[in-house]
């Protein structure tokens, strides 16, 4: 009986010593698994995108006729972006009156009234508008 109690005491001591240490995770094969850390990914916004959004909603007066998903006076931005992507065309060129209307030619005369605003923009501003509009899907 003493022998059983000694064996039990040694066994209990051995278990408590192995369980008191730092626990490490292991895979199904007993190999240690490194602790998972969440990687933080920073998303950076293209400054031209931000500038394009500001122009679209402000000085460009584009929101008077264009909405993201709905045709108002002019086509929805997502429809404009889709067609320009499909045709490989440039919105920046169009708003500088260097391209033909390809989305809704029936609205061209209305759009021409805004060319005074868009042609007064710098090439970078027109490119920023294009980047913003082409971001819609």
From TrEMBL:
Keywords: Heme, Iron, Metal-binding
Signal peptide: none
Pfam family, one: Cytochrom_C
SUPFAM superfamilies according to UniProt: Cytochrome c
Location of the Cytochrome c domain: 47-137
Name the record gives this protein: C-type cytochrome
Provenance organism: Flavobacterium helocola
């Amino acid at each position: 009986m003493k022998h059983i109690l000694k064996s039990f005491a040694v066994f209990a001591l051995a278990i408590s010593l192995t369980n008191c240490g730092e626990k490490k995770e292991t895979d199904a094969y007993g190999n240690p698994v490194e602790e998972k850390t969440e990687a933080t990914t920073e998303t950076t916004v293209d400054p031209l995108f931000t500038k394009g959004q500001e122009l679209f909603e402000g000085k460009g007066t584009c929101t008077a006729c264009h909405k993201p998903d709905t045709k108002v006076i002019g086509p929805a931005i997502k429809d404009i972006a889709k067609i320009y992507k499909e045709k490989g065309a440039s919105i920046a060129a169009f708003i500088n009156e260097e391209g033909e209307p390809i989305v809704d030619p029936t609205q061209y005369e209305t759009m021409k009234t805004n060319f005074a605003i868009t042609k007064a923009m710098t090439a970078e501003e027109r490119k920023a508008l294009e980047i913003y509009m082409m971001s819609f899907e």
